[in-house]
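Exercise 7b. Backbone tokens:
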């Protein structure tokens, strides 16, 4: 009998070692190459479990905490050896793994008891029929009974372990699927929130084990014999405890996602308000500049009329007048898009690109019949050009930022193209590339801002990457629906 059970134990420990490694690598960053680490982990895990199993009396594990020690020690020590230190994630991975496995291991016990309970009456009837028929001698029948019972026990344990591992796989998969992102840092309070369901499951598991096995007049009795309804109640309690842990993970992810979205929303609103204030300031300055240009030109004309009487000083006065003309010319923007706000925005980015030695190619015009709020258009241009400049300045040489706009019927398109190095990293279930900035929780604010404006005007935003002659090209296309041109 020892051989069959030993084979099952070895298979269980090997499979458990593989599960534990795969589960740990989801939460933690590995220190060494994966294939080698996995093989060493499984070997060390299996060997350690077998050694601990021989040390601990397997007949009394149900009334103490000793059966938990091998899992805690092996999982913890191997995690420190093979993965980078992250105490909060490592603690949750260890607690949730052990809690799930222990609860399901205890759940398999009622199943095995139920299967054997159905097998024994059928087997007794078969033996009695064989004895009555005289088909087999008593010695031969005793030999057959012995091996048949061993096979029945082996098959029963094997079925229970397969069901247990199937449920365990689903449990681990649901936790991995609903856990927070890799770049999210758990606080001490959040770690405690996640650990409470795991510790609760382990406590209930040990309590149920103490209640399930008791000694009556020196004989071991099972709670299943005293209260048969526990064959259904105990597995139900175990499944509910696993659901409690999974639900806590899902709830926590929802709370963290909401917190991150709220931070993004507040930051987005602050940036929108900053753009609005900047646009108002630019509009005021632009009005003052137009008045100043008018006054300067009038002053220059008056001076020119007066200098005709002083021909001998004409060279000196002419030089002075040319200097004033240059000042007036500097007050004019290079871009004449049809909107003073857009002109000022493009002038600002021209100056930034000139300072950073970035080539610009702006070909933008503001639609004459437009329903767009100039503040919204300013937000789109500011965010798009800011992202383009930040990406382009990392290119060694021959970097360029281009901007153009065009109309197709009632649709107004804005395209911003820039050079960039490396490749984009796309997150799961997101069409906005991940940021390279330190605060990963607030990535993509500029692009989200642009998308919000596009959706406001029943439009959309598209991002594409092309291979250029020198560098990779990032192309941002924003489509806005101009309902003022709907009838054209």
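Sequence design result:
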């Amino acid at each position: 009998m020892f051989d069959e059970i030993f084979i099952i134990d070895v298979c269980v420990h090997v499979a458990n070692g593989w599960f534990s490694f795969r589960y740990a690598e989801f939460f933690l960053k590995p220190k060494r190459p994966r294939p080698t680490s996995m093989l060493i982990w499984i070997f060390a895990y299996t060997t350690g479990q077998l050694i601990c199993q021989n040390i601990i009396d397997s007949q009394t594990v149900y009334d103490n905490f000793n059966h938990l020690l091998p899992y805690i020690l092996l999982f913890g020590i191997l995690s420190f050896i093979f993965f980078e230190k992250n105490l909060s994630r490592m603690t949750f991975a260890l607690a949730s793994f052990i809690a799930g496995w222990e609860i399901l291991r205890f759940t398999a016990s009622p199943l095995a008891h139920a299967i054997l309970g159905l097998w024994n009456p059928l087997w007794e009837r078969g033996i009695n029929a064989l004895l009555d028929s005289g088909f087999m001698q008593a010695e031969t029948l005793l030999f057959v009974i012995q091996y048949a019972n061993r096979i029945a026990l082996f098959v029963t344990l094997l079925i229970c372990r397969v069901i247990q591992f199937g449920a365990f796989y689903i449990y681990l998969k649901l936790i991995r699927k609903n856990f927070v992102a890799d770049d999210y840092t758990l606080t001490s309070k959040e770690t405690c929130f996640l650990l409470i369901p795991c510790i609760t499951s382990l406590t209930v598991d040990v309590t149920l084990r103490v209640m399930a096995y008791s000694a009556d007049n020196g004989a071991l009795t099972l709670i299943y014999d005293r209260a048969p309804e526990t064959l259904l109640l105990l597995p139900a309690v175990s499944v509910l405890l696993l659901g409690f842990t999974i639900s806590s993970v899902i709830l926590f992810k929802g709370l963290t996602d909401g917190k991150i979205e709220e931070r993004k929303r507040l930051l987005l609103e602050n940036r929108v308000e900053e753009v609005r204030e900047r646009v108002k300031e630019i509009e005021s300055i632009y009005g003052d500049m137009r008045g100043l240009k008018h006054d300067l030109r009038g002053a220059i004309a008056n001076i020119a009329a007066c200098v005709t009487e002083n021909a001998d000083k004409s060279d000196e006065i002419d030089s002075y007048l040319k200097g004033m003309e240059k000042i007036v010319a500097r007050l004019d923007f290079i871009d004449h898009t049809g909107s003073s706000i857009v002109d000022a925005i493009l002038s600002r980015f021209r100056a930034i690109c000139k300072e950073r030695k970035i080539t610009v190619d702006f070909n933008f015009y503001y639609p004459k019949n437009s329903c767009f709020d100039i503040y919204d258009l300013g937000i789109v241009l500011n965010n798009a050009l800011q992202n383009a400049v930040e990406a382009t300045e990392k290119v060694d040489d021959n970097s360029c930022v281009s901007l153009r706009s065009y109309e197709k019927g009632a649709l107004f398109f804005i395209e911003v193209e820039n050079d960039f190095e490396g490749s984009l990293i796309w997150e799961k279930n997101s069409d906005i590339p991940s940021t390279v900035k330190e605060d990963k929780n607030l990535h993509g604010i500029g692009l989200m801002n642009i998308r919000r404006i596009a959706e406001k005007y029943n439009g959309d935003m598209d991002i594409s990457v092309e291979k250029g002659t020198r560098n990779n090209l990032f192309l941002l296309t924003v489509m806005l629906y101009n309902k003022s041109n709907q009838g054209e």
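Instructor comment: The chain has a mean pLDDT of 77. The first helix runs from residue 2 to 27.
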